[in-house]
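Please check what follows.
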Amino acid sequence: VCMLCRRAEADPELCGDLQEQKGLCVHVFCLFFANGLFRQPRRQGGLVGFLPEDVRETIWKAAQKDCFVCGKSGAAITCWQTGCDRSFHLPCAAKGRCVTQYISPYRSFCCEHCPEQAVD
């Protein structure tokens, strides 16, 4: 079970592969989108570049937040929009009409603040 999204079964296209190390089990993309986690680009080891102690702290902080989509605790992702406090689990993003940008800097937006693309 991913300790960030709390899902045993999740679409690997959406959440990435499960990584296990030092008592932690998390999806790769759950790490990339989680609040306050910063990848160490030159660091070998850790969980795909994330320090285990930082991941543990993020898991603890996420446990204090409820997902605005499913209502369960452990929401590790908060809308990128300044002032918005909507939090959610990565697997809940699509159901909640959130937008997740799978390119650096890996930002997520709730349905109210999602960016729109201009159409000509």
Q: What stands out?
A: Residues 52-62 form the longest helix (11 residues).
